[in-house]
C-alpha cells in the first residue's frame, strides 16, 4: 500500500522534470533561431540569366537591384574614375586598346561625339601599340561641383628599363545624361546614360591649388 501511495507523487515529479527539460530546450531553440534570423539578408529579386538556355543555380542567377535605391552621385563618380582610367592608361595590346579607344570602345561610348572626336587616336596608333610602353593611372582626388568633377591623378609610364615616369595631371570633367546611352551589361553598366561632354586637361603643377 505504501508503494502504491508514492507512485502518483513520483509520476508528478517525473512530469515536472520533463516539463522543465522541454522548456529549457524550447528556450535555447528560440534563442538560436532569433540569432540566425539576424544573419539573414533577403535578396529582393533573383532572376535568371536570359543569355543562357539552361540555368545553373550557382552561376546563372543574378541579383537585381531597383534603380531608385542607387546613389546616383556615387555612380557618377565611379563612372568618371572608370572613364579616366580607360582614357589615360595604355596597355601594349592591340585588342585591348581597340576595346578601350576604338570607335565602338569604352571611351567612345562614355563620351559625346565631340569629345571622342577630339580624343580619337589616328589610324596608325593601333598598328604600333603592341610596341608601346604601358601607362597606368593613379587617381588621387575627386571633387564634384554640380555636373563637373575636378580630378587630380598621376600617370605612370614605364621607361622600358626598371623605372616608372610620373606625370601629374588635373582634369575637369563635365557630364550629362543621355537616354540613348543607358545600358545594363555584363562588362559595363550605365543605368542613367552618363556621358562626358567636356574634358579640360592641365598640368597639375601649374593648376590653381
How would you describe the overall organization of this protein?
Helices cover 37% and strands 27% of the residues. The longest helix is centred in the first third of the chain and has 37 residues, at 2-38. 11% of the residues are buried. The protein has 209 residues and is of the alpha+beta class. The strands form 3 sheets. A 4-stranded antiparallel β-sheet has the order 3-4-5-8, with helices on one face. The protein has a two-stranded antiparallel sheet with strand order 1-2. The protein has a two-stranded antiparallel sheet with strand order 6-7. It has helices spanning 2-38, 72-88, 94-101, 106-109, 113-119, 125-128, and strands spanning 46-48, 61-63, 135-145, 148-158, 164-177, 183-184, 189-190, 194-203. It is elongated, with a radius of gyration of 31 Å. The model is unreliable at 44-58 (pLDDT under 50). The protein has 6 helices and 8 strands; from the N terminus they run H-E-E-H-H-H-H-H-E-E-E-E-E-E. It has a domain at 70-203: VirB8 protein (Nuclear Transport Factor 2, Chain: A, Roll), CATH 3.10.450.230.
